[in-house]
Design a protein that fits this description.
The complex is a heterotrimer of chains A (406), B (343) and C (290). Chain A is of the alpha/beta class. Helix content of chain A is 44%, strand content 16%. Chain A is built from 13 helices and 12 strands. In chain A, the strands form 2 sheets. A 7-stranded mixed sheet of chain A has the order 7-6-8-9-10-11-12, sandwiched between helices. A 5-stranded parallel sheet of chain A has the order 2-1-3-4-5, with helices on both faces. Chain B is mostly helical. Chain B has one domain. In chain B, 72% of the residues lie in helices and 1% in strands. A two-stranded antiparallel ribbon of chain B has the order 1-2. In chain B, helix 5 runs antiparallel to helix 10. The longest helix of chain B is centred in the middle third of the chain and has 27 residues. In chain B, 53% of the residues are buried. Chain C has 290 residues and is an all-alpha fold. Chain C has a single domain, classed as ABC transporter involved in vitamin B12 uptake, BtuC (Orthogonal Bundle), CATH 1.10.3470. In chain C, strands 1-2 form a two-stranded antiparallel sheet. Chain C is globular and about 60 Å long. The termini of chain C are far apart. The chains are: A alpha/beta (406), B mainly alpha (343), C mainly alpha (290).
Chain lengths: 406, 343, 290
C-alpha cells in the first residue's frame, strides 16, 4: 500500500528522476522491518479516561503516518494502571518484548519512572504529555519531550490573552485564580509569579484558590471566587471539576467577563456534551493543533470518521506527534539501533506536523522549546481557534454571555 | 540473640532457605531486566509486608494506613538528600526517627484512649490521609508538584548514595528482605513476641497475667513503623520521584497488607510467599489476558479481585500454613498454626 | 467577605451533609448489627448512581422518582451479598473481612469501568441548575430537594426499626446475638435483611447524589472513606449519629474551604475524626459500651 501512495505523491511532484528515487526509497522502506513502538498509557485506574482518550489516536495515527510515507510501525501497548510502580515494570516489559522506542505516559510521575528505565536501557523515550519541568532537567540522553512545560504554557497564555484583549478592545483589571492542587495545577500556579511580570498584563490576580483534585463538591470554591469580586476567572482544572465549576457558576448566578482556562477540561467533548448551551464561552489557552496545517486536517477528518462524537484535542495531538517523532527518527536512522534512533530524534526537524508552532525539534535537553500554544473558545458546541491569528479559524467572542440568559 | 535466630529450625528448613537464597543471589546472572524489576517489587512488598505483620500478625493491631510510614521515610530521606545533600543511609536514621515519633503519637493516642479494633484501623487510615493532604501543601518538599531526586545515567553503582543500576537495588532489597525475616524471627521468639501473641489472642487475659499491654502494643507499632520507613527510603531512591497522591494513597497501604494476609498472617514466611504469589500472579495475569485478547482495561483487576476472593474463602489462614505443615516446618517453628481465631 | 457568602456556604454544607449522612447511615446500620465494616460501601453507591444514569438516559426517569426502585435493587444486592458471600465471614477476624470486601470493591470498580468506560456520566434534569434566592442568599434547588428526601427517608427507617416487628428483631440481634438465637430468631436471614437495608440506604443516597455530581467508576473509594469518617464521628451504630455526622462533616469542610484553603478541606474532617475518636471514641451519639 505505502509503495503505491508514495509513488503517486512523488509522481505529482514532477520529474521522472523523482519517481525513480522515490520508488527506490519506497523499496527500501518496504524492506525495513516494522518499528516496534511501545505505547505506555494509563488506560485503567484514576486516569483511565485520559489514557483511553490518548489511545484513540494510536490506530488512526498509524494510518496517517503510512500515508505520509513513513515506515511501518508495530504497536505494543502497555497499561500503567495509573501507578508509578506498574509504569516502571511495564516499561521494562515492553523493552524486553522488543520495543525500540517508547512513548507515553500522560502523567509526570509515571513518565519519570519510565524515563529512568529508558535511560538505563538506552532506549529512546518520547513523552507525549507531562508538564512537570524537572523531567527534562536531569541530563537524560534518551528522553525527549514534545510538550510544553508549565512556564511555556503560561507564557503563551499571557501573550494570547493580550492579543485577544487588543482585538476586542476590552481588558479586565482584576482576576481571581482557581487551580486544582495536583502536579499540573501547582506547577502552573508556581510559574505565574515568574512568568506574569514579563508580560504587561492589564489585570492583577486578587486571590488564588487551590482545591482538592478529588473534590466532590465545588460550591464553596465558587462562593469564594465570586466573593473575591474579580472581573475574570483564571482557572487550571481537569475535566470533571470544569463541569462542576460551570454548574456552580450557573447555580450561584455568577458570570465573569471571561473564563480563561490554562489547562484541560473546558474544551473537552464531555464538557461540551454535558453542558450543552452552558459550555459556550470559556477561552482555553492550551497546547492545540493548528487547524490550517495539512496533517491536522487529515487527522481531524479521520478522527471524525472513526469517533464521530469525539473532537480532536490535546491528548490526540501530542500522542500522535510522539508517534510521528518515532516514525520520523526510524526513517532517517534507517535502522532500529537505539543509539542511532536517539541520535535521529535529537536532530528531528518535522515541519508538517499538527501542533501550533514551527514544528517538532528538540534542544540539547531533549525538550521541544519551540512549541507554541493556541487560544481556543467553545462556540455553539464547537471548539474554534481564536489566537494566535496566524493559526486561528475564528475571532474571539468577549465578554461571554451571561449564564442565566441562555 | 543467636539462640533466638537459629534454634528450632529443622535441617531441611535451612536447606530450603539456603537454596532459595542462592537462587535469588544468582538470579541476576540469568534472568532479564524485566524480571529483575518484578523481583525488586516482590522484595519490596515482602519486606514491607513483614514489617506490617509485626503489628497485625504478632500483636493483633490492624493498621490500614502503613503507606504513612513508607511516605514519611521516603520524604525524610529524599528531602535531606535533595536540599542538604545528606546521603540516604543517614537519611534512613532520620526516616526511622520521624516515623517512630509519629507512630508513638498515633499509638499513644489510640491505646491511652482505648481505641481498638475497627476504630484503630480507621484511625490509621485517617492519619495516612491526613498526611497525604498535608504533604500536598508542603512547598519545601515539592507539595503536589512532586519531589524529584537528581538522576544520571550510571556506569557504576554508588552504594553510599544509592545511585546506581537496578541490580544494586535488587541485592539491597534482597538483603533487606532476609534481614527482616531474621529480625522478625528473633522478635517472635523473644519475650516480647510471646507477650504480643498473648495480647493478640486475648488482651484482657494478657493484662491480668501482668503483661504491660500498653507498652507492648507501643513497641509493636513503633518497631513496625520504623521498619516500614526503611522501605520508604528505598522507594524514594529507586523511583526517584515522590508525589503525596502516590505514596500516601490508601491503595498503597492495601498493596502492602495483601501479601501477608494472603501468604499467612502471623507467620514468618507468609509475607514473603504472599508477595511472590501476588506479584507474579498480577504480572502473569497481564500476559495471560493479552494472549486471550481480553485487554479491556479493568479486566485484569477483576480477575485479581476474584482470585483474592477465592483465596480468602478457601484458605482463611493464607497460603503458607498448609504448605509449612506439608513440608514439616510447622511443629517446631509454629509456622503452620492457625493464629487468627476471633476470641 | 459578605455575610451572605457565609450563610450560603453553611446551608450548602448542611444539605449535602444530609445526603452524605444517609449514605453513611447504611454503613452504620450494617456495622451496628452485623459487626462488619463494609469496605465496598462507596462502590455500591457508585453502582446505584450508574443505575440512575441508565434509567434517566434510556427511559427519562427522574432519579428522585427512581430512588425507591433503586433502593430496592440495592437491597436485593445487599441481601444476596450478605447471605451468599459475607455470612461465612461473620466470625472471621477483621483483616479477613477487610480483604473480602476490598476484593468485592475491586471487582465492582473495574466491572463498572469495563461496562461504562472511564468518562464521567451525568443526569441533567429540568431543575438541575435551578436555585432559589431568598434575601441575597442563594440556595441550590437540587440540594434542597435531596436534603429533604434524605431526612424523610431516615425518619422512615428510624420508624421501621422502632416500630415494626422485623425492625425490633434486628435490634434484638444487634443487642444480644446469643439471646436472639435462643429465642429462635433466624439470625442469618435478619443479618442479610440488615445488610440489604444498609445497601438500600446507599442506593437511595446514590440516586440523589447523581443529581449533584457526575459519576465515574473511580468514585467509590473516596465515598467509602467519607462514610467511615461520618459514621465514626457521629457514632458507629447510631442512626441519628450518622445524620449528625454527615451534617457536621459537610459544614466543617465547607467552612474550612471558605476560611482556609479548599484544597485542604478534607484534612479538617480527618482532624475532626481524630479529635472525636480520642475524646469520645464511641462517637458523638454512640453508645458508651462497645
Amino acid at each position: 500500500m505505502s509503495k503505491i501512495r508514495i509513488n503517486r505523491r512523488h509522481f505529482v511532484a514532477g520529474t521522472s528522476a523523482a519517481v525513480v528515487s522515490a520508488s527506490s526509497i519506497s523499496r527500501a522502506l518496504a524492506q525495513m522491518p516494522p518499528l516496534k513502538l511501545g505505547v505506555l498509557l494509563p488506560t485503567s485506574g484514576a486516569q483511565a479516561g485520559i489514557g483511553q482518550d490518548c489511545q484513540r489516536v494510536v490506530d488512526i495515527g498509524l494510518g496517517v503516518l503510512k500515508d505520509l510515507g513513513y515506515p511501518a510501525i508495530t504497536v505494543i501497548n502497555g497499561d500503567t494502571e495509573t501507578n508509578v510502580e506498574v509504569a516502571r515494570s511495564r516499561a521494562e516489559k515492553l523493552i524486553n518484548d522488543g520495543a525500540q522506542i517508547l512513548i507515553g505516559a500522560f502523567d509526570s510521575g509515571q513518565s519519570t519512572a519510565i524515563a529512568q528505565v529508558a535511560e538505563q536501557k538506552g532506549i529512546p523515550y518520547v513523552i507525549n504529555i507531562a508538564a512537570a519541568p524537572p523531567i527534562t532537567e536531569q541530563g537524560y540522553k534518551f528522553v525527549f519531550r514534545n510538550f510544553p512545560t508549565a512556564p511555556m504554557i503560561l507564557g503563551d497564555a499571557f501573550a494570547n490573552q493580550l492579543e485577544i484583549f487588543k482585538a476586542v478592545g476590552m481588558s479586565p483589571k482584576t482576576a481571581v485564580m482557581l487551580h486544582v492542587n495536583d502536579t499540573f495545577g501547582t506547577a502552573m500556579q508556581g510559574g505565574i509569579g515568574a512568568v506574569m511580570p514579563k508580560f504587561d498584563m492589564p489585570y492583577k490576580i486578587v486571590e488564588t484558590i487551590a482545591y482538592d483534585p478529588t473534590a466532590r463538591d465545588l460550591s464553596v470554591e465558587i462562593s469564594k471566587a465570586k466573593a473575591a469580586n474579580a472581573e475574570v476567572l483564571l482557572v487550571v482544572s481537569r475535566l470533571n471539576d470544569a463541569i462542576l465549576l460551570t454548574r456552580e457558576m450557573v447555580k450561584q448566578r455568577w458570570t465573569p467577563q471571561a473564563v480563561l482556562s490554562m489547562g484541560p477540561g473546558w474544551y473537552e467533548d464531555q464538557y461540551l456534551k454535558t453542558l450543552g448551551k452552558l459550555s459556550d464561552g470559556p477561552l482555553g489557552f492550551v497546547p492545540w493543533y493548528d487547524p490550517n496545517k495539512k496533517v491536522s486536517k487529515e487527522l481531524v477528518s479521520l478522527m471524525g470518521k472513526k469517533f464521530p462524537e469525539v473532537t480532536m484535542n490535546t491528548n490526540h495531538v501530542y500522542t500522535f506527534e510522539a508517534m510521528m517523532t518515532a516514525a520520523d527518527a526510524y526513517k532517517r536512522a534507517g535502522s532500529s539501533d537505539p543509539k542511532a534512533l536517539a541520535d535521529a530524534i535529537r536532530t528531528t526537524n518535522i515541519t508538517n506536523n499538527v501542533a501550533t508552532g514551527p514544528g517538532i525539534q528538540f534542544n540539547a535537553k531533549g525538550q521541544n522549546d519551540k512549541l507554541k500554544n493556541s487560544a481556543i473558545q467553545n462556540r455553539d458546541g464547537k471548539v474554534v481557534v481564536v489566537a494566535p491569528a496566524s493559526a486561528a479559524d475564528a475571532k474571539p467572542e468577549y465578554p461571554m454571555k451571561d449564564y442565566t440568559k441562555r | 540473640m543467636k539462640k533466638l535466630l537459629i534454634d528450632g529450625v529443622p535441617g531441611h528448613g535451612w536447606l530450603m532457605l539456603a537454596v532459595t537464597t542462592a537462587l535469588l543471589l544468582a538470579a541476576p546472572l540469568f534472568v532479564n531486566d524485566y524480571l529483575i524489576t518484578v523481583l525488586i517489587l516482590i522484595f519490596y512488598f515482602a519486606y514491607a509486608g513483614q514489617a506490617w505483620n509485626i503489628m497485625m500478625g504478632f500483636a493483633g493491631q490492624l493498621s490500614l494506613g502503613h503507606a504513612l510510614y513508607v511516605g514519611l521515610g521516603a520524604y525524610a530521606a529524599a528531602g535531606l538528600y535533595v536540599h542538604f545533600g545528606v546521603g540516604p543511609w543517614i537519611g534512613m536514621g532520620a526516616a526511622i526517627i520521624i516515623s517512630g515519633v509519629v507512630a508513638v503519637i498515633l499509638g499513644y493516642l489510640a491505646f491511652r484512649f482505648g481505641v481498638g479494633g475497627v476504630y484503630f484501623a480507621i484511625l490509621t487510615i485517617a492519619f495516612a490521609e491526613f498526611a497525604r493532604i498535608g504533604f500536598d501543601h508542603i512547598k519545601f518538599l515539592g507539595a503536589s508538584s512532586g519531589l524529584f531526586l537528581p538522576v544520571k545515567q550510571y556506569v557504576s553503582n554508588d552504594l553510599w548514595s544509592l545511585r546506581g543500576k537496578p541490580v544494586m537495588f535488587y541485592y539491597l532489597m534482597l538483603v533487606l528482605m532476609l534481614v527482616a525475616l531474621g529480625i522478625c524471627r528473633m522478635l517472635l521468639r523473644s519475650r516480647l513476641g510471646y507477650y504480643w501473641r498473648a495480647i493478640r489472642e486475648d488482651e484482657q487475659a494478657a493484662q491480668s497475667l501482668g503483661i504491660d499491654v500498653f507498652r507492648c502494643k507501643m513497641y509493636a507499632v513503633v518497631i513496625s513503623a520504623a521498619m516500614t520507613s526503611v522501605a520508604g527510603v528505598f522507594f524514594a531512591f529507586y523511583y526517584n520521584n515522590l508525589f503525596p497522591e502516590q505514596v500516601f494513597h490508601i491503595s498503597r497501604s492495601i498493596e502492602i497488607i495483601l501479601g501477608p494476609i494472603i501468604g499467612g498472617i502471623g507467620t514468618l514466611v507468609g509475607p514473603i510467599v504472599g508477595a511472590f504469589v501476588l506479584t507474579i500472579f498480577s504480572e502473569g495475569m497481564t500476559e495471560l489476558l493479552e494472549v486471550f485478547k481480553l485487554t479491556s482495561p479493568g479486566a485484569k483487576q477483576v480477575f485479581y479481585g476474584i482470585a483474592l476472593l477465592v483465596v480468602i474463602l478457601l484458605m482463611p489462614h493464607g497460603i503458607w500454613p498448609p504448605i509449612a505443615r506439608a513440608l514439616g516446618l510447622a511443629e517446631k517453628s509454629g509456622e503452620g498454626k492457625p493464629t487468627d481465631e476471633k476470641p | 467577605m459578605p455575610l451572605e457568602t457565609y450563610i450560603n456556604v453553611i446551608i450548602g454544607g448542611v444539605l449535602t451533609g444530609l445526603v452524605y449522612g444517609l449514605m453513611a447511615l447504611g454503613l452504620s446500620i450494617i456495622f451496628g448489627v452485623v459487626r462488619i465494616v463494609n469496605f465496598a460501601h462507596g462502590e455500591m453507591m457508585t453502582i446505584a448512581m450508574y443505575v440512575a444514569v441508565v434509567a434517566f438516559s434510556q427511559f427519562h426517569l427522574d432519579p428522585l422518582l427512581m430512588m425507591v426502585p433503586i433502593a430496592a435493587a440495592l437491597f436485593a444486592l445487599g441481601y444476596v451479598m450478605q447471605a451468599g458471600l459475607i455470612n461465612p465471614f461473620i466470625n472471621r477476624p477483621e483483616h479477613s473481612q477487610f480483604i473480602l470486601l476490598v476484593a468485592v470493591a475491586l471487582i465492582m470498580v473495574n466491572l463498572l469501568l469495563i461496562i461504562f468506560g472511564p468518562d464521567a456520566q451525568s443526569v441533567q434534569t429540568s431543575y438541575s441548575l435551578d436555585s432559589y434566592e431568598i434575601a441575597g442568599v442563594i440556595i441550590d434547588a437540587t440540594k434542597a430537594y435531596t436534603g429533604a428526601a434524605a431526612v424523610v427517608l431516615s425518619a422512615a427507617l428510624f420508624a421501621f426499626f422502632q416500630m415494626s416487628r422485623t425492625g425490633q428483631s434486628i435490634r434484638a440481634c444487634a443487642d444480644n446475638y446469643t439471646g436472639a438465637l435462643v429465642v429462635g430468631l433466624n439470625v442469618k436471614h435478619l443479618y442479610a435483611l440488615t445488610f440489604g437495608i444498609g445497601a438500600a440506604c446507599v442506593g437511595a443516597a446514590g440516586s440523589m447524589l447523581v443529581l449533584l455530581i457526575d459519576v465515574t467508576p473511580a468514585l467509590g473509594p473516596g465515598y467509602t472513606l467519607l462514610a467511615f469518617i461520618i459514621v465514626i464521628t457521629g457514632g458507629l451504630g447510631s442512626m441519628p449519629g450518622a445524620l449528625l455526622g454527615g451534617v457536621l462533616i459537610g459544614v466543617t469542610e465547607a467552612m474550612a474551604g471558605l476560611l482556609f484553603t479548599p484544597s485542604a478541606k478534607s484534612m479538617f474532617s480527618f482532624a475532626l475524626l481524630v479529635i472525636v475518636l480520642l475524646f469520645r471514641p464511641q462517637g458523638i451519639l454512640g453508645k458508651a459500651t462497645r
